[in-house]
Amino acid sequence: MTKLFIKTNRTLSAVLSKYKYSTAAKSIALVDIKGKEFVSDDYTNITPKIISYLGKNLHMQKNNPLSIVRQRIVNYFYSSFTQRGAPAFSIYDNLSPIVTTKQNFDDLLIPSNHPSRAKSDCYYINRGNLLRAHMTAHQSELLRSGLDNFLMIGDVYRRDEIDSTHFPVFHQVDGVRSQRKEELFPGQPDLEIFEPNYDKKNPHTFVNSIKDPMKQSCHTLEATKLMETQLKTHLISLTQVLFGESIKYRWVEEYFPFTHPSWELEIFYDNKWMEILGCGIVRNEILVNAGPTNSIAYAFGLGLERLAMALYKIPDIRLMWSTDSGFLTQFQNIDLNESVTYKPVSSYPQCINDMSFWLPENLTIDTFVSNDFYDLVRDIGGDIIEQVRLKDKFVHPKTKKHSLCYSIVYRHLERTLTQAEVNEVHKVIEKAVVDTFGVAMR
C-alpha cells in the first residue's frame, strides 16, 4: 500500500490514482519484511504501513528529541554505575524488532490467555513471530549471554487507538540490574538472597510463589527490600535528573507477569499525575530459565515519547516522525540538559469526516475490533490521520442491525489539506472498509 504522507511537490490525488486496495492480500502465502520472507497464517495482521516504520530508529537520529532523552538516560546510568572506572551497564540499541512469541511472551511468564497476546493488541507476522511489543522481549537472551546490567533501547509496536498521544510505534528504554549475594550484602555473610528451603543446586525443582505481596517465596525479605530500595532510589534520581529536583512523585503498586513485587512511578505534571515508568523485582523463574541461579534482579521500563512530550511540551506524538527542519532545528546542537519548549512551526487546520456503517450479521458493536478499523484507516491515510474516535453506536430497534459511526480527523503536519483532497482519501477508506469487513455504508 502507498504511503500518503505527501510533500508539497506531490498531491494526494496523484498517489490515490495509483492506489489499488484489494483484499486479495489475505491469500498471499508469504510476508516480506525488509527483504526477509515469513510464511503467513491466520495470525498475520501486520500491514505495509507498519512495515514502513521498521529501521527508522528515531532514538538514534541526531536532533530528534527521542534521541536526546535516550542519551540523557544513558548518561545517567553510565555515571551512576561503574566497575573499576568503566560503565557497569551495557547498551543495546540496535536489536531487531522482529521477535518470536517465545521471546515476547513465554520467556516472560506471560500466560497464554493474557490479553496482551491478543491479535487486537499486537502486530503478528505469523503465529510464531511478531514485532516486539516491549523491549523486555530481549531480556532473557541478554541474561543468557551472561550480562548482569544492561539497557535495551528501541522501537516497539502495539495496536492502539489513534490520537495525539498514541501511535502504533513508540520507543522504550528497558533495563535490568542483577546482583549476587556478595554484591548485595558486602561484608555481611549472614544475610542471604534466598530462603533456606530454596534449593540453589536444583532451582528448577522449587515452585516459586507470588502470593505474598511483599516478596517472591524464594527470596528473603531482606534481599527484596534492599533491591526495592536500590531500584526506587535510582529511578527517583533519574526522574529528578530529567524533570528537576523539585518534581513531585509517588509510587503505585502494580502487577506485571514478569516482576514481583511491581510498581509504577508517577509524577505530578501539568496539574495531574502521570505514569512514567513501570518496574519491579524480576521473577526468579526468568533468571533460572535464562541461566543465572544465584542472583536477584530488578527491571524497569520507560517510554521515550511520553518523557519527550512532557519535557519539551510537544503536543502531537506524530511530530516525532517529522523531517521538517522547522521542527528538528529546535533540537539541533542543544545542550542535553537544556530546557527547550517546542514552538509550533505553524498550525494547519483539521478536516473532520464521519463514517457510519451497518455491520454484517456475524458482527456486533461488541465483537467488532476497533483496532482493525484503525489500522486500515492508518494504512490508507498514513500520517495525515490525526485521530479516529468512535462517535456513536446504534442498534436498530426493529431490524436489530448494529451500526457504528467513527469520526476521522485529518491534518497534515507540513501543509494545509483541502477538503477535496480529504474527501478523496475518505472515499478510498470507505471502499476498503466495505471490502474488508463486509459492512454497508449508511
Describe the structure.
There is one protein chain. With 442 residues, this protein is α+β, with helices and mostly antiparallel strands. It has two domains: 12-40 and 346-441, Ferrodoxin-fold anticodon-binding domain (Alpha-Beta Plaits, 2-Layer Sandwich); 58-312, 2-Layer Sandwich (BirA Bifunctional Protein, domain 2). It is built from twelve helices and 18 strands. The strands form five sheets. It has a seven-stranded mixed beta sheet with strand order 5-9-10-14-13-12-11. It has a four-stranded antiparallel beta sheet with strand order 16-17-15-18. Strand 11 (249-256) and strand 12 form a beta hairpin. Helix 3 crosses helix 7, helix 3 (65-80) packs across helix 9 (304-312) and helix 11 (370-381) crosses helix 12 (419-437). The longest helix has 23 residues, at 221-243. It is globular and about 75 Å long. The protein starts with 11 loop residues before the first helix and ends with a strand. Mean pLDDT is 91; it is low at 1-12 and 17-27.
